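Lecture notes, continued. The same structure-token format from the folding unit now serves as the input rather than the output. Read the line below as a description of shape only.
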């Protein structure tokens, strides 16, 4: 699969999600009959019923204090508490979407700290930026960029966080090498992401491929952890691990593609929950790892 195709598809998909046009899988244009996937509850309805469980890792208080619209239900955990952020730190969020985690991190680093959210999608970056301006955030900024080629100097960040974005990057090794490069020695990486513990049903893969025009390829759990270690990260620890059911994908572009397909059965939807895991992982760039590079 061509990397350029994947990035182009993601850029278009997330631009549309951020409100830059109308998505071909826009739920408003699909009749209720198309939402009945076998006997399964339509995913949109399931999400409406489980707002907090589908934004795992956040407290009600977290979700109440961020700007309205920054929580688009696209994450698979909360990387902020695990990053142990301190006042004055410089933090980078990879694939920041509408900025949810950046706004939470901004409170932790305080007025002397800085949080930068980076995203491939112009729509997402500009949505996040406008929410920051409206909310009067002085210590958060958003930029357009690619996780595989970060526009930051070596050893410039105390912490890098990421939520459900690295799984979408074609070259995960490049992504982790870049995160390692921009971290200061002793800097922390906190990522929540999805990994596969099996193969997604063919109907699900086809629906995503048809909806996006391409298929992202998440790593296996062992593959993901192995890549982090091979890029120099030390103390790679799994902090949380849980199944990631289909309902939790409902707001994301892959989830919408699945919802738009009439070929997916309720059994396929159950299989998604058995195949996708959500991991919260913490790792450190130690001084010695830096010297080995
Ligand atoms: C599933 S969304 C998660 C958004 C956000 N982290 C959240 O939890 O709400 C993934 C985000 O990663 C961005 N993304 C995907 N590939 C990227 C890349 N190579 N570089 C930068 N951002 C990327 C997408 O544009 C999208 O905004």
């Amino acid at each position: 699969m061509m990397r350029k195709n994947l990035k182009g598809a993601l850029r278009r998909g997330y631009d549309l999600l951020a409100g830059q046009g109308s998505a071909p899988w826009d739920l408003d244009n699909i009749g209720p009959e198309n939402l009945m996937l076998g006997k399964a509850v339509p995913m949109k309805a399931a999400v409406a019923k489980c707002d907090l469980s589908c934004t795992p890792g956040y407290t009600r208080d977290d979700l109440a204090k961020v700007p309205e619209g920054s929580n688009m239900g696209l994450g698979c955990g909360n990387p902020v508490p695990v990053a142990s952020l301190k006042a004055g730190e410089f933090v980078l969020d990879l694939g920041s979407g509408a900025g949810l985690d950046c706004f939470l991190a901004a409170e932790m680093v305080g007025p002397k700290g800085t949080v930068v959210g980076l995203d491939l999608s112009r729509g997402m970056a500009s949505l996040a930026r406008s929410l920051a301006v409206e909310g009067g955030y002085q210590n958060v900024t958003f930029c357009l960029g690619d996780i595989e080629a970060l526009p930051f100097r070596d050893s410039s960040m105390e912490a890098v966080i990421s939520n459900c974005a690295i799984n979408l990057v074609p070259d995960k090794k490049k992504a982790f090498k870049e995160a390692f490069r921009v971290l200061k020695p002793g800097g922390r990486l906190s990522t929540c992401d999805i990994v596969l513990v099996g193969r997604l049903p063919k109907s699900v893969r086809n629906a995503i491929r048809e909806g996006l025009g391409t298929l992202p390829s998440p790593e296996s759990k062992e593959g993901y952890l192995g890549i982090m270690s091979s890029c120099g990260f030390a103390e790679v620890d799994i902090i949380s691990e849980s199944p990631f059911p289909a309902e939790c994908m409902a707001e994301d572009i892959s989830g919408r593609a699945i919802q738009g397909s009439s070929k997916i059965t309720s059994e396929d939807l159950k299989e998604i929950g058995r195949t996708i895991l959500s991991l919260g992982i913490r790792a450190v760039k130690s001084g010695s790892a830096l010297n080995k590079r």
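Point for the exam: The pocket of S-adenosylmethionine is lined by residues 7, 10, 14, 72, 74-75, 95-97, 100, 118-121, 124, 146-148, 163-165, 168-169, 252 (CB under 6 Å).
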